[in-house]
Amino acid sequence: MYKYVVKRILLMIPVLLGISFVVFFLMDLTPGSPADIIMGDLATAEAKAQLNESLGWNQPFLQRYVEYIVNVFHGDFGTSYVSGLPVFQELFSRFPTTFRLALYSMVLASLIGIPVGIACAVKQYSLIDSFSTIFALIFISIPSFWLGLLMIIVFSVQLHLLPSFGSESFAHFIMPAITCSGATLATLIRMTRSTMLEVIRQDYIRTAYAKGATKGRVIVKHALQNAMIPIITIVGVNFGYMLGGAVITENVFGMSGVGNLLLGSIRNKDIPMVMGGVLIIAVMFSIINLLLDILYAFVDPRVKAQYKKGGT
Amino acid sequence: MEDNKKTLLEIEDLDVIYQTDLETVHAVNGISFSMKQGETLGLVGETGAGKSTTALSILRLLAENTGKIRKGKILFNGENILDMNKLELQCLRGEKISMIFQDPMTSLNPVLTVGKQIAEVLELHNQKHLSAHQIEERVDEMLRLVGISSERKHDYPHQFSGGMKQRVVIAIALACQPQLLIADEPTTALDVTIQAQVIDMMEKLKSQLNTSMILITHDLGIVAEICDNVAIMYAGEIIERGTVYDIFENEDHHPYTEGLFGSIPRLDDETDRLKPIKGLMPDPTRLPEGCKFSPRCPKCMEICKKEQPPACRKGTHEICCHLYRKNDEK
To answer: What string of DSSP letters covers B286-330?
Structure first.
């Protein structure tokens, strides 16, 4: 198991190198030079050329890339062309907002989605089942920006209950978290329902009933753990996505998260900022995936046995 | 077998259907039988004859949405199981009646250790108020009883072979020393050498613990080996029943039973082909009128196609066939 984890962490290195190369290349293809951004339209062409020279912009693409990577390995992510602040500092001042948003959304989606999904499976074709199917369909179809705007109109503008803008207090996170979790919640309900339905038809569930176990015990003790793998996959992967910044939600609610920062940086061709942001998202995603794989081993002993054998 | 032993289980006119929106499957059509304490009853028949449905009905484990018991009584120690509420059923299942399922590969929970799965049934029916430690000891004892080292109780089902898993299933079934054990084709999924081991072990444990058993199988060899009484099922009905001697030694048989015996290949017979019973089991959604076996029966008469054959008794031997009607009337 320990060996497996080390192997997976080492495997992250080529993945990150690949991602950084692709992004660096794409950013290079966009028009304009760093000096255009830093100095604006008023500067002379001479001054711009000088600045570009000092930033190393005139060197060949591959050389710039290699230099960037070497710097990253030394812990230097460069400074933002726009704000002039170190990239690392900028990103990490934004990260708590994104993290909180992702965490609240996932907790909300799991707390509602999993129990509702279970209830739907246990009482298949019942009222709650039909109702939640419709509910899930609506939530998966609604565009999140629209849901966000709608909530702002109702809860901020009309009822004055919640703040519509910013990310200072817990109240600021309520509407964004609901907006963000909608689609995940819907997927989670449907997925929990279908996996549970599959599991409760298994022979070992009948064995559990034949032992004299109550329905509740059978569901909680025997069925749920067997249905857990697809469920934690959905929660984990969506959490990973959200850590990369929920761009639309952050924009609608004017939150200063990583997603918003990244979007602005791409528009401004702020190469160090974009690179830093993308790398952080990639690292987060890889770590979440690794954690998921470790979690699988605790949920299903058969997976653990595979890891022990040294399989992938 | 003493006759004064108490009747343990009595099934009267049991009728079970599986109902879906599209069709109604007549799985069990008015069967009756009874068994005494300590007795082993073999339920024999082809796939789809209604054996497993009968077994599941006894524990009320039929699929909730589709399986329905239309009429009949299942008396266990004089109490009708069909009238029991949830709580009474929970006390019955696993403690007084337990079941061994067909496929050991899938009947154990893959995410729980075998020790926990055996302990669960003891915890659920802990009337002697055993402590956790005593339950663990009992788990070890059960594992040893079925021939598995007690050190392996921390292992998961995927670490066991098929035969070993079936032993674990048997340990679970016998942990509470039930009065009745229902074994639904316990050896079908196992290979022949393991079959013999498992059957031997079940036989031994059954006599040790004085458990009655319903053995569902299509293997006549196993029936001859361990059953006291045999009931042969076809299309949801018992078409012939009797003691193991009646079935294996007697001359007279239902044509279906003859077909079953005829289809067993013999060592001393030099034939190239097996002799199956021609045709297929009738579609349980549209059962034929009269005798259900008549479309496949080599001795079919006119009356067979119209009239349900009566039960013809001769001592302990009972055959439902028009052929033996005269014998009965004499």
So the answer is: SPPSS-TTGGG-TT--TGGGTSPPPEEEETTEEEE-GGGHHHHH-
Distance CA A255, CA B110 (A): 45
Alpha helices in chain A (DSSP H): 2-29, 34-39, 45-55, 61-73, 87-122, 127-141, 144-151, 170-199, 203-210, 215-217, 224-243, 247-252, 258-267, 271-299, 301-308
Cα distance between residue B182 and residue B229, in whole Å? 14
- Across the interface, whether the CB atoms of B94 and A214 are under 8 A apart is answered no
CB contact (8 A) between residue B111 and residue A209: no
CA distance B299 to B306: 15
Interface size A-B, in CB pairs within 8 Å, comes to 76
**Residue B291 contacts residue B309 (beta carbons within 8 Å):** yes
Partners of B75 in the beta sheet?
B10, B80
Give the domains, in start order, of chain A with CATH numbers.
2-73 (no CATH), 92-309 (1.10.3720.10)
Cα B304 to chain centroid, rounded: 28
For residue B101, which residues of chain A lie inside 8 Å, CB to CB?
203, 206-207, 210
CB atoms within 10 A of CB A7: 12
Using DSSP's 3-state secondary structure scheme, residue B182 falls into: strand
Pick from A193, A62, A54, A218: nearest CA to A128: A193
Task: Tell me, yes or no, if A127 comes closer than 8 A to chain B by beta carbon.
Answer: no
Reading chain B (330 residues) residue by residue, the pLDDT tens digits are: 445 678 899 999 999 999 888 888 889 988 999 998 889 999 998 888 888 899 999 999 888 888 889 989 999 998 899 999 999 999 999 899 999 988 888 899 999 999 999 999 999 998 888 889 999 999 998 898 888 898 999 999 999 988 889 889 988 998 888 899 999 888 877 778 878 888 888 888 888 888 899 999 888 888 888 899 999 998 888 999 999 998 888 888 888 888 888 888 877 777 778 888 888 888 888 888 888 888 888 888 888 888 888 888 888 888 888 888 765 444
Q: What three-state secondary structure class fits A211? A: coil
ipTM of the complex: 0.87
Cβ–Cβ under 8 Å, residues A119 and A131 = no
Spatial separation of the C-alpha atoms in residues A212 and B125, rounded to whole Å: 8
Interface of B with A in 149-168 (CB under 8 A): 156, 158-159
Q: How far is CA A156 from CA A167, A257, B295, in A?
A: 15, 21, 77
Does B93 contact A at CB distance below 8 Å?
yes
